[in-house]
Structure formats: C-alpha cells, structure tokens
Design a protein that fits this description.
The complex is a heterodimer of chains A (about 280) and B (about 240). By secondary structure, chain A is an alpha+beta fold. Chain A has helices at about 25-45, 50-80, 90-95, 175-180, 185-190, 190-200, 205-220, and strands at about 5, 5-10, 100-105, 110-115, 120, 130, 155-160, 170-175, 230, 235, 260-265. Chain B has a six-stranded mixed beta sheet with strand order 3-2-1-4-5-6, with helices on both faces. Classes of the chains: A alpha+beta (about 280), B alpha/beta (about 240). Chains A and B meet through helix 4, helix 5, helix 6 and helix 7 of A and helix 4 of B.
Chain lengths: ~280, ~240
C-alpha cells in the first residue's frame, strides 16, 4: 500500500520529572494542535492556492506563533478541567514539551521544530540530510520548550520545494535517539539502514522489530526514552488513470507511526482537543 | 547494517567532572591533607553512583591553582581508571587563570554537544589574587560553561564567599562553607555523589527532579547534617 500525499506527522517529547508533571499531556496536546493546524493549511491551499513564495513567507512568519498560541489555549482548557493551585503561567510550565512536525505535499515539504530532537530526510538514492542544522542552544538535557515565554521566536521553520520525486523516507526522532550514538555520522546511518530493511523486508516486519531496536539503542546509549516517527513509501497524488511514478521495483510500503505521541493526518486526531 | 538495529556505533554520554582546587600557601598543612584525603575517600562512592547509571561515562580531571594554574590531571580519565595523586600547597591564589584554562576545555570541540552537562567543583580558602572576573567571564562565554553544574566549597572562614557565589551564579545554590575537616569531607562526598547522580541521570528517568526542559537538570541542595544528625558546635581546635 502506498502512502499518498499529503502526509503530516508530529512527534513531541514531554520533559518529564516532577517539575513537568503534566508534560505527557502537553505532548499529546501539541501533536493534536500541530496536525490540525497543518491540515487546515493544506486544505486551504487546495481551495485557495497561493504562490509558493507567499506560502513560504507565511509559514516562516506565522506558523510557529499560531501553533504555540493554539497549544497554550489547549493547555489552558485542560487546566480548567483539572485545576491546580499554581498561577496560569506556572501551571502551563507543567505541560512543557518539545515538538517536531513535518508536512509533505506533492510539491513541497514543511518542517517545524521547537526544542531538541532530530529530523532526517533520506532520498531514493540513500543520501541523508537534515532540514535544520544542529545547534548548541539545545544540548545537555536543556531545551526550548512550548511552555517558555515567546518560544515561537526560537522555533525553526523550513519550507522547501520537492524535486522530481518525494523523499524515500522522513524520520522524526526525540533526542534520546541521536544522543545514543557515538557520533552524528553514526546516527545519520539510521535512515538509510531503515530504508534498506523496509525495501527488503517490508514495512510490517520492520515495524514489528522497531521497538526492540529502540530499546537496545537506549540501553546501550543514552538511557533516555526514544520516540521515532517514520514516513515512507510516499507517492504523489496523481490524476485518475495515471500510474504512480515512484514505486517501480519497490515492495508495497506504508507509513509507520510508533508511539502515542506520534500521529499522521489520516489517523484520528489525538484524544486531546485543540482549541483555535 | 548491524543485524541488531539501524544506525552506527552506540555510546554512553560523556559526563566531565572537573575538580578546581586552591593550592595556595594558606591551604598548606591540615587543610591540604584533609582535601587530599576527602577526594581519595570519595572515589569509591563516586564509582558506586556511576555504576547505577551506566549510560553516563564519567570522566575526571583536576586543575589546581596557586601561583599560576596547571592541570594536575589533564586528560579526561574514566572514573574506573582514575587514581588520586596528592596535591601540595604553596603560592598565591590565581583563580582567574585556572578558570580560563577550564573554559578552554569547555569549547566544542574538545567537548561534544551530546555530552551531559559537566560538573565543576571549585574548592578555595581565600581571596583571588588575579583577575578572577575574566576567568568567570571565560567560563560563561562557553555554552558548556553556562550549562555546567557549578558547585563551590569554601574551606575555612577567610574564603571570599561572594566570589564563590559568582562562580556558581545560581539563585538557589549557595557556596558551602566547610569550617572543619568533617564538614569538608561531607561536602566533597555530597558534590561527588549526589550532584554526580543528578547530573548523570537520563532526562526521562522517573523521579529525576528538574529533568529536561528549559532549566536543565536540577541540583539537590545539601543539608548541614553530618552522619544523619545535626552537627554540634565544633570544638575551637577543630575549626579552621
């Protein structure tokens, strides 16, 4: 089964611990908000197309702020349902989380990152690249968080056009994954290795082995939780009667969600509501 | 691809633990003897803490400062291989130069961005005799300097507590003041075990206060208790 575009995936990493006691909920809420917002953007584009340069500018100027505002509203609703003695600002802190989002459409890809974690894109030829360079602002267990004041200013947003073919694989991973590897180059081998296994064994078998792989990686590496989202088998939506042009010679494939805090556009939205 | 999993070589995360020790002339005699003994005695306890978290690779270094500064142990040494060699005291108190040398080692490279926050433990008994502010500035200009867990222990009543507080630069962590040998042993044990334990915990570990997030790892605040009971007023002869 192919994964027809567009696809949206979001991965969030709640900070955990006593200080961020509701961060699992915060992560759930931000995933829901991100998917809903990006879905609205893509739907609006279908009915009201704009130039890609305008879309790029709008995304870079407004997307992160809109996303953060929706999350704050969702958190405030959650706090009303389950009140606590802290002030609103202090209560929001309990929900602290990071966020990685990607939306892949026929002609472009959009990425948003708030806080730590990694996004990697693997081409059909097995080349790996990152939409965002690594930054030293987030390291050592310290990270930007949705709960920080004006954090949208520190969000990273990237809009890029797709060339002839969609990427073969996109992966979103929380920082526990890359922190488990000896070097950035060792981590960058994950994407091509996964693609190789998917191509030889298929998505279902790969998915069945993934939890064990991640557990081994954590035990021998960072010791931290790992959440991984993978999109593969992307096929451009084509006019009726035209065959897809990227699947020749490949085994049937599908996207692979792996954790409660990941989702894709065609699954039901996470159980948290998202205001706005 | 490895038959076991995707990706290349795995590794635990480095945790650099750096002792920054005052070896000026005023530390000579009982103070330097107690300092040597306290660090030597802390090592098995540090190893015990490190064994509880194999995902952090603890690497020890020691810098001493008196007239000038020098690396007593320059190479980051795995805790399991680290052996303490006694230090001696003589000279003035060039803290600033020592901090500049530490700051140079906090650059990336040689530090790695995937490391855990380093732990810097400064022990001093007096007033700096050089431009210590430049040293503090050098530390804070490095990303790892800003993110380091910084602890300071004053030995005796003549230490400049304000300078030590500037080194720590944290609203909730104050310099510890060791007025007796027992207190020095207690505080060194705490810095090398409780602080190490906190700094080496994975961000998502249950019960780890602070954890990941905007503020980074929390640091447990030491108590004044020794051996589980409140210390009685030490005898005059025991106080530095």
């Amino acid at each position: 089964m192919e994964t027809q575009l567009p696809v949206i995936m979001a991965v969030a990493d709640g900070h955990g611990g006593e200080v961020y006691a509701r961060s699992a909920r915060g992560a759930q809420l931000v995933v829901g908000c991100a998917i809903k917002l990006l879905s609205e953007v893509l739907t609006t584009l279908q009915t009201n197309p704009v130039s890609y340069s305008l879309l790029k500018r709008e995304a870079e100027e407004r997307l992160a702020r809109d996303l953060v505002q929706r999350w704050l509203a969702a958190v405030d609703q959650d706090i009303k349902r389950k009140p606590m003695p802290e002030s609103t600002e202090d209560a929001r802190r309990l929900y602290g989380t990071t966020l990685l989002v990607t939306a892949v459409a026929d002609e472009f890809m959009l990425f948003v990152q708030i806080g730590d974690g990694d996004i990697r894109i693997v081409t059909e030829e097995g080349e790996v690249y990152a939409p965002f360079p690594s930054e030293n602002r987030v390291m050592g267990n310290e990270t930007y968080s949705l709960c920080m004041k004006d954090v949208w200013k520190y969000a990273r947003v990237r809009f890029q056009m797709i060339g002839q073919r969609p990427p073969a694989l996109v992966l979103l991973a929380t920082d526990g994954y890359s922190n488990s590897f000896s070097s950035a180059e060792d981590f960058d081998r994950v994407g091509p290795d996964l693609l190789g296994v998917i191509r030889t064994e298929g998505v279902a078998k790969t998915a069945a082995r993934l939890a064990k792989w991640l557990q081994t990686t954590s035990e021998e590496g960072s010791g931290d939780d790992i959440t991984l989202g993978v999109i593969c088998g992307l096929v451009r939506s084509a006019p009726a009667g035209d065959p897809p042009d990227s699947m020749a010679g490949q085994l049937p494939q599908d996207q692979v969600p792996f954790d409660d805090a990941t989702a894709d556009a065609r699954a039901d939205e996470s159980s948290g509501s998202c205001a706005g | 691809m490895s038959k076991l999993r995707p990706g290349g070589e795995l590794a635990s995360r480095p945790l650099h633990f750096i002792w920054i020790l005052d070896c000026s002339g005023s530390m000579s005699g009982d103070k330097i003897q107690q300092l040597n003994m306290a660090i030597q005695e802390a090592l098995p306890h540090m190893r015990g803490v490190a064994d509880e978290n194999p995902n952090a690779k603890v690497l020890i270094r020691v810098l001493t400062f008196s007239s000038g500064a020098r690396w007593h142990v320059a190479t980051p040494t795995p805790l399991e291989d680290f052996k303490w060699t006694n230090i001696e005291a003589d000279g003035v108190t060039d803290l600033g130069q020592g901090l500049v040398m530490v700051a140079e080692q906090l650059r990336i490279p040689p530090m790695e961005s995937r490391s855990l926050p380093p732990v810097l433990v400064l022990i001093s008994d007096g007033q700096p005799t050089d431009d210590y502010k430049s040293g503090l500035k050098a530390i804070k200009e490095q990303d790892w300097g800003k993110k380091a867990v910084r602890i300071a222990i004053a030995t005796g009543g003549d230490a400049d507590i304000d300078v030590l507080a500037q080194f720590i630069d944290h609203p909730e962590i104050k310099p510890l003041q060791a007025m007796t040998a027992d207190q020095l042993v207690h505080y060194i044990r705490w810095a090398s075990t409780e602080v190490l334990k906190q700094a080496s915990s994975p961000a998502s570990q249950d019960g780890a206060p602070g954890s990941a997030g905007p503020g980074g790892p929390g640091v447990p605040i030491p108590t004044a208790q020794i051996g589980g009971s409140n210390p009685s007023t030490p005898a005059a002869d025991d106080v530095w």
